[in-house]
Amino acid sequence: MAIFFVRVRNLFAPAHREVSQLLLIHESPKTNLFLEIFNGAHIIRAFGKENFFVRKQAENLDNFNILKILEVSIKGWFSIRIHLISILLIIAAASFIIFGDFSAAMAGVIATSIFECEKDFLDFLENLSKFQKDMVSLKRCYDFCSYKPEEIRSQPQQAILPPSSLQEEQQKINFDSKVSASSISFVNVWAKYRQDLNYILKEITFSISSGEKIGILGKTGSGKSSLFMALLRIMPIEKGAIVLGDININEIPLKDLRSSMSVITQNPYLFSGKLRECIDPYSKYTEEQLLNTLYLTHITDILKQQYSESNILDIQIGGNGGNISAGIKQLICLSGAILQKKKIVLIDEATSNIDISTEELLYKNIQSLLLSATVLIISQRVKTVMDLDRVVILDNFQIIEEGNPRELLKNSNSKLYSMWIESSQISPQKK
Hints:
Radius of gyration: 32 Å
CATH class of the largest domain: Alpha Beta
CATH topology of the largest domain: Rossmann fold
CATH superfamily of the largest domain: P-loop containing nucleotide triphosphate hydrolases
Low-confidence stretches: 154-170
Order of helices and strands: HHHHHHEEEHEEHEEHHHEHEHEEEHH
Shape: elongated
CATH architecture of the largest domain: 3-Layer(aba) Sandwich
Helix content: 40-55%
Number of domains: 2
Number of helices: 15
């Protein structure tokens, strides 16, 4: 009889394990979309996309419920067969007692033992199946842990021997000395997200001198943000090279490369805590330095109007800045970048949620706030990059124009001139 129990369990366990794994996989989209809808309900209503998200969530729920029904069916199949085998075992034991020559006491002992044995065996099979199901979660954790770290995946193909402590220190000294120039060169860079996709950077070649302020313009999807992703080695370079100082970025340790730059994204993220912790998480700077930086980014007056704290550095910030506006979040991130005084600052439309007058004032102050830093600014507003040293205009993932913005505006055939006309409807000469 035990053989039948084991055979049924061997048929049930693999199917139950695979369905459980699929359930875990399909549960994430359902939960994530619910949180996205909950947090962005006002935006969804504003754009009238309620039906789109309802259909999308209904599709996620259908996929999840199909697997859930399949899991319940598999459990029912297993339960029915286990109980049928148990019934047969009890009938066989009862027949053995009835037709056997046993005393009443012995018959009671046998019957009790059969019932207890059947119950214990069922509990064992159920717990074993539950254990295998729970191990699916552990397997997923193991899969994530065994995934190659980004540093290893981005290393060159040749074997790299671990350097000694002296070599590591020498490499760091060499790296720091080369990056101190903060010059950047893109040399015939071709890049794409995956091998099966098209190139999103093509023949990108230009150089940025140390301390130069560069504006990057272009339509949505022209490849502006992809430049930053290639520079930070988030996206692999298929051809060409990016040189930082005098060294190829592929030869720089990933941690050192990214820690040498400040990045301000279009959708900044803030951890919960006091404002001083968001700007200076490692407590490296004095309170006077923090307040001075907030003043330079024109955020002091805004916060004093909205909060009653005597010291604005003690203002409590919610998770991901949930209790402040998107514009203030961008200004806080900009304050952190100015405070850290990194040699290279990347700004990806980081003032898109700030009013135009404040944005123009900030871009004008970048010349003094980040005087010694090399600054790359992605923007779709032509006016905000007019005070920069140069502009690079992208279209169809390629550089189509480059030069001083005021010189380019003097040429009515330039792309920058046409972008100015499209955005302001006023001739730059008349302006």
